[in-house]
Structure formats: structure tokens, C-alpha cells
User: Fold these one by one.
Assistant:
Number 1:
Amino acid sequence: MVGKENGAVALLKEHLQESNFDQDILIVHCFIHQEALCAKALKMTHVMEMVVKCMNEIRAKRLKHRQFQTFLEEVNAQYKGLIDHSEVRWLSRGRVLERFLALVAETSKFLRERNPTLLTENGKSVLMLLSDHAWLLDLAFLVDITQHLNILCIKLQGREQLLPELFNLVKAFQSKLNLFHLQLSTGNTMQFKYMSSFVAKTKIDFDPGFTKYAKICEDLCESFAKRFHDLSNREKHLSLFQRPFTVNVEEIKDAELQLELLDLKSNKVMEDIYQEQSILQLYSRLKVEDYPVLLKNAHFWITQFGSTYRCEQGFSVMKLNKSKLPSQLTGGHLDAGMRIATTPLQANFSSLVQNKRLQRSSFGQL
């Protein structure tokens, strides 16, 4: 659909060039999916594969899984079991890794009793890795950085978020990654609580600069910069949309837009709306005949879809509604359920009930 070489986007660009259409077009991919692709830059498969190996060994058979749960109850473990990993779920990996790290000692003890010869795909002993401090430190770092990514993912979700707001969240996360890189380079693990706890507990002299982890943060930041470079090149237009009262008019090259900005900055009523309410309220109060260029730029950013969150939510609603249990639902019921679940409007049930005639039963009359 959107491939760079042969997809719809590439064909559209080719058509515009053949038609001598000189205006540049903005191509925006889903921010949530882009964030998930950036997370693949971590390249710590040796940790994730090991975690999945242990979970499959325990959860593959129901008897062994029940034995593991009983074992956790006997040793008064923090949790009652491990969590299944699902690659298609955005927040799955962070929760799975955090639970596994909390139960790594119990998991190692249980496997030592049940399957002491368990090997990884590379022929390494699972039990040796579970007691290897270097591997456990990798696991702690992966838990911490994945939690930071999950926090960003949750912020990117939601119904009423404009593309500029999503881009600001991504820019803020890039700044955090730069901070992580600098701190880890000097041995500071302040922002990595599981790493800090593990280093303090083991009291082992690891690499004081944590060079490997600092490099991972740097690569992750570069991955974000690469995937969102189209929007980075349009930061001036974004700034004009989000902060029209603070834009330097002399830097604007459009003569008509300069005059519109001066008129807007002199309008104290609009400035109060901008400060006290929202940017959408401001643009909804502006008149097209007075601010045509400014509103054209605003419409461009307001109508951009920053994520497919609403579509994904619609699929989830349909999956819940269209099941075997509510077998009496018709296509009309499903359409109505989708409409209710995906709209921000609230139904006025009192008014709807008043318009219906009440049918009294014969039992009620008796």
C-alpha cells in the first residue's frame, strides 16, 4: 500500500511529477507503528529469545504450568506466574520482561529441578545464562528501556490528538534518549531503576561507562530521527500552527502571512482564547476573510491523521461485538455498536425515552 518504490505513495509521487505538480506532499505513517519499528533498533534478541524459550518451556504443557504456579505459591513469590508474549500487542514485551525479571530466580530454580539440561538455540545452557550477571544486566536494561518506550506508546494513543501534539511527544522522547546516552556514558543509571537495583545488589564492577547501553540509546535516537525526518523538516510550519503569537514575523517569507500574524498578535481577545482554552478554539474563532493563509496552514495540520488508533479501536470493538455469544445481533446492530463505540458524542437517553410510547403489559394493569 505505502511502499517507497512500488506502493500507492510512490505511484502518487510519480503521477504528480508527470503532471508538473510542484507542491510537496507530506506522507505521514502511523506514529504508534513507527514507534514500534524504532524499538526494533534495540537489537537485543539474545535476551528476548531466552525469555521466550523459558516461558514456552514452562507454559507449553498445562501440568508443568500448574506445577510452576504451585511452586511460586510455596516460595511466596511476588507474582503467581509468567505472562504470554504477543508480538502484535504494543505493550506486551514490556510487561512480559518485567514479570520475567521479577521471577528470574524462581524460574531458574524451577528449571534446575525439572529440566537441568535445557539448551538455547545456540547450544548454550539456559541455567548458565540465568545465572550470568552480564546477561541479567542486559535483561535489566531491556526492561528499563522497554518501559520508557511503553510510556511513549501510551501517550501516543488516544482519540483527540493532533499530529503536531504527537510529534512533540516524539521530539521529547528523542531528548530523553540523548539524556540517557550522556548519563550511561558516565556510569549514571538514574533513569534505569532495574539496572540501578541490579548493580547495587550484585556489587560487581561492570563497565563504568556502560558503553554498550549508551550506544543502544544513541542508535535508538537515530532511528527515531530517521523515521520522523519528514516532519522535522517542517518544524517551522508546525511552530506557526502551534504558537502563532510567538512566531518571529520577520522570519516569515510570505508577505500576506506576515500581515495576518501582526493582526492576530494585536487581537487581545484571540490571545486570551489561545492562552485560556485551546489552539482549536482559537482557529475556530478566526474568520476566513481575515486570516486566509493562517487558516489554510491550520487546516493542513488539523486534518492530518497522526495514527491509526481509531481504526485499531474499531477493529477491537467489532471483535468483541461480533462473536458467537451475541448471536441475535444483526448487521444493523453491529453498525450501531461501532458508531457508538467510535464517536465522542454522548446520547441523550432522557430525550430518546420521552419520544417513545410506553407499552404497558396486562400484568401491570392487574
Number 2:
Amino acid sequence: MKARLTTFEEYRDNIAEYKARGGAAKGLSTGWYALDEFAMLKKGLLNVVTGSPSSGKSELLDQLMLQTIALHDWHWTVFSPENWPIENHFQKLAEKWEGRPLFGWPDMPGLDSTNIALTISDLSQNIHFIDPPEDDLTIEPILEALRESVREHKTDAFILDPWNELEHNRPHNMSETEYIGQALTKLRNFARRNNVDVFLVAHPTKLQKDDDGNYPVPTPYDISGSSNWFNKADMCWSVWRNYTANDGVVQVHIQKVRNKNLGQLGMAQLFWHRATGLFLDERVGNDKLNGHAIKLRVQ
């Protein structure tokens, strides 16, 4: 297909509408008021998510997904071998959705069969999982399944977690930097053309702990391959926690925001509730957790 030339004149009405609605506005809420100060959501972006080992990257994205379902009725497609088997992933999602542990906890009853059945029904309306061929874990069949999900289920957002689990058939005459650059460009173009918010999780290379036993806050430059992890992303997230304190505090660092209307560089502090896996804006004990189930936010 031949490229064409255009001018602002062709987009006069679009520009007037853009001005009338306040530009790109602030996007949509993440569901955390602490995080909304630094990052808000908009379809059509490529988000690169990294973090220190066992910091909660996957679980944070799980909750983000559930909160957008409850607040914005977003539909998600997920490829997450990090969370396999799917029964394990269901437990993590169900506990956040219901605000209660699956198997019970001191002073907290577990989910019964009715809760489980309702959660399966609730989440199946908005989440589809990609189950790729066993002999092909490359990006191509995953993107093909994603295209189908966009057509059939009106997907709003996609999680690939993690990049490191994919098989990468890089041509012998192509450098790793070139390969990653091309792959990220393909994902970013897919996001823009299909109006899908893409979240790509990539683990950093081996980090060195400091004298206190903690890892530094990683950046996209710590991901193996190239600086394209930072350069190609529209937004960069890094999740970090203090291992020695073990106090449930989780920091979400926003390290790049291409569109200034959607956020700014900075750090949001959240509190992880162990029994339910919920990340909360404030520390809450088991006895005061009632009302924090994500399903209660459904409009």
C-alpha cells in the first residue's frame, strides 16, 4: 500500500474536537488515586513494565486489569505464562475481585462454591487468555490470537507477561538490538492501529544487591537487549519493594511518560495485603478490609 501525504487542513475537525475536550485529557483512572497522579490509562499505548525480582509486577497488573474492568468495562486479552497454570491465576484474580482469600485466613472466611462460580462468570465476560501451541511460543501466534480477540471480543488492553518466556527466533544476521527494536515497533504499531493498551513485562538482567540486601530500582535500561526498551515505550513502569523491611510497601515508579497529558515522572506508594493480594492506597488490617473487593467498584 502506497503512503500518502496529508496536512493539518484535512484534520481541522479533529483538531477542533481535540481542543474542545481538553486535549488528550487525563486519560482513565488506574483505580489507585496514588498512582493516578503519575500515570493514567489510554488505549493505543505501549507500556513497558519491569521491576526487581518478586516485587509484584504480575500481581499489580492483575489488579490493574480488574480495576479497569470494574471502573471502565475494559476487555482484556492475556498471555501470562508467569501465572500458569490457569487455576493459580484464577486464585490471584478471584481473591482481589472478591476481597477474600480463596482458602481462608485468620479472621477471614474463604470463598465458597457460589463465590467461585460467580467470579468465573464475572471475569469470563471481560478476560480472554491466549493458550498458544505447545511447540510455538514465538510472538507470531500470540499476535494472531490477539488480532482475533480484537475482532471478536473488542479487546481494550493486552498483557504479555513476561517477554523472557517467549522463544525468540532471531535471524543470524540480525543483532539483538535490531531484533528487539523491530519487535517493540511491531507491538507499538499494533497498539496504535488497533487502539489497544499493551502492557509488556520484561525482567531486568541480574541486579546486584546493595549492602542493605536490597536491589536498586531497575529501569528499562536494565532489561537485556538494548535501550529500545526505553526508547520505544510510551510509558515505563518499574515495581520495587524493600526486601529487608518486608513491610508490604510497594513502590511503583513511573520512569517515562511520552504524553504529558497522561502523567509525570514520579513514584506512587501502595500497600500489599497478603491474604487477598490486594494493593491498596492505604494500609488496611484484616478486620477493616470489608469494602475493598474490586467487584464493589462496578458502576
Number 3:
Amino acid sequence: MYEVLAGRPPFKGKDVLETLAQVRKKEPVRPRTVCPAVDRDLETICLTCLAKDPARRYGSAEALADDLDRWVRREPIAARPVGRAERATKWVSRNPLVTALAGTSILLLLAAFGGLVVLGYSRTLAEKNHELEIANA
């Protein structure tokens, strides 16, 4: 997975022994460092698979498959907790029609409210002008 994302293996030494030493001692370079176009969540999934500490890796192939399915569906992945803003952004990208309808509805409501405010203000001005005309007459 790392090689597909980054275009190179995570560890590469002069020979097998050096490569194995890198696997034991070094952390892999983040795939986005090598290829900035890599999606952040996909990078997280990949690096979770390569974690040195077994407790930080996926507990099973099923857990990995679940996270990959979440990534495909543009849902938050289990390997990286997300905040409200990112969760909302992912929801919007999964539901563009609902988002467009809600946005249009909000804009129409704001326009109607603005129209009512302008109408009320112009009515107040008209009443004051009328009072001034009566007072000047």
C-alpha cells in the first residue's frame, strides 16, 4: 500500500540486512512527503498498518477493511479521530444535494428577511415624511 501511494517502498537499504535494520529502527517517511496528492486519511491508514507498536496497528484485517470502506464512502476513519468541522465537511461531500437545497433555502430566507427589513424601514420613513408634511402644512 505504501509503495502504491508513495511510488517507492517505505524502507530501502543497500542490501536486505540494512533494509531490515531500517524496518526495526526507523519510521517510514510520510507518503504525503513524497507525493503531496495522497489523501490524508489514506496516509493515516497506511501508516497505521506500518506502526512499530502492535497496539497502534489494526487489530485485524477486518478492522483495516472497515477503515478502507469508510474512506471510500468519505466517512471519518477509525484510525484518526476527526473534529466537528472535518466531520461536517465529509458529510457535505457525501450529501451534495441536501447541502445545496439547505443552502438555497437559507439564502431565500435571508433574502426574504432582508426584504421585510427594507420594507419596514421604508414604511417608517414614509410615515415620518407624512408627519413632517402635516407639521409643515
